[in-house]
Amino acid sequence: MRLLISLIILLAAQLPGSSLAPWAEGVEVGWLDPVINEASGIEVSTRYSNRLYHINDSGDTGRFFVTTFTGADAQSVRVLGFNPKDVEDLSLGPCGQPDECLFLADTGDNDRERPWIEIAVVRELRDFPAEVRPLARLRLRYPDRAYDAESLAVHPDGTIYLLTKQGQGNKGRPGTPRLHKIPTTWWKNQPGPETLDFVTEIDLEKVAGNIPASARLPTSMDISPDGKRVLILNYINAIELAFDFSQPVPAADGWREGRDYQRISLINLNQQEAIAYLPDGNAFLYDTESRGSPVARGRLVQVRRAAGPPDRTQKEPGVPTR
C-alpha cells in the first residue's frame, strides 16, 4: 500500500499593530514519496522553485532527498563518508558567498551517551548527482554532558543553532531544553571535535501551553529568513518566538504572549518532526514521520499582507520562481 505522509502548509495573516502575526489553519498540500518513510527534517529551497529537501530519521543511511513542493518524485542523494548514528534535522543556510548549503544533523542520542555528534554540510546544487562529497563534516561536543537533540537551524549570518530535546534533568524529569551554537568562524576551519557554545535555556513549559511534558519536547526548529523569528515544533503544536538568536535572548520570566511568543494550533500529525519557513517568511511547512496512517485534511488559506492584495507572482505558495 502506498505510504501516505501528510505535508501541511500554514499561511500567516498579517495584522497591523501585532508583534507576531497570527497563523491561519493548515491545508494539506501533498504526500511524501514512499522512500521518505520516517521524515524527520524538511527545508525549502530559496534558489530553485518547486523544490524541497528531506531526511529520514534514525536507521537510515547518510543521505537526503530532493522532491517537488508536494513531496513527490524523490531523488536520493548519498553524502560520501557520512555514516550517521541518528540523523534528526535538516537546515538550509549560508556557507560562504555565493553558496547555500544543507546542514544534516546527526544529533540524536536517546541514551545521552555519545561523546560527540556530527553535522554534515553539503553545498546546494542545481542538479544533484547520486553521490556528493560534503563541504565539511563538523564533529561537536556539548560543554557539560551529552544530550539528545532533534532541532537544528542556521541563522542568516551563518551561525548554526542546536536545541536539545531535554535539559539537565534526568529521563523522568527532562528539564528545560538548552540552546547551543556553532560560530561561523569556527566551523569553516573545522579543527574539531569542538565544544559548542551554550546560549540560553528555552522555557517550553512556559510557552507550549497545558500539554504533557513528553508532548512539548522540541522535535524540529527553523529560523525565519530575516533571522528575527524562530519556529519550534513539538508533538502537539508549534511555538513561534520573536527573538533573533544573534542578539541576547531575554529571561523567560519576562516573556509575554503575543509580543515575545505565540502558540500555533496545528492539524495534529502522528510523530510530527519536521518544520520549515517558506522563503518569504509568511508560511511554513511541517510533516510527519508516521507510516501508513490516515491524516486529517485542512483548508487552503491564502496569504494576505497588511498593505495590499496577495502576491500572485509565486509559482508555488511562498516559493520564488527562478
Give an overview in words:
The protein is built from 2 helices and 22 strands. It has a 5-stranded mixed beta sheet with strand order 3-4-5-6-10, with no helix packed on it. Strand 12 and strand 13 form a beta hairpin. It is globular.
The number of distinct β-strands equals: 22
Contiguous runs where pLDDT drops below 50 for at least 5 residues: 1-5, 14-18, 292-322
Could you report the average pLDDT, rounded to the nearest whole number? 82
Q: Compute the gyration radius: what is it?
A: 18 Å
Helix proportion of residues, in percent?
under 10%
Number of helices: 2
Strand content: 35-45%
Question: Key features?
Answer:
2% helix, disordered N terminus, globular, disordered C terminus, 5-stranded mixed β-sheet, 322 residues
List the helices and strands and how they pair.
Layout (H helix, E strand, L loop, with lengths): L5 E6 L15 E5 L7 E6 L7 E5 L6 E5 L7 E5 L7 E8 L5 E7 L10 E7 L7 E2 L3 E6 L7 E6 L5 E5 L13 E5 L1 H4 L6 E2 L1 E5 L2 H4 L12 E4 L6 E4 L3 E5 L19 E5 L6 E6 L5 E6 L34
Parallel strand pairs: 6-10, 11-15
Antiparallel strand pairs: 1-2, 1-22, 3-4, 4-5, 5-6, 7-8, 8-9, 9-11, 12-13, 13-14, 14-16, 17-18, 18-19, 19-20, 21-22
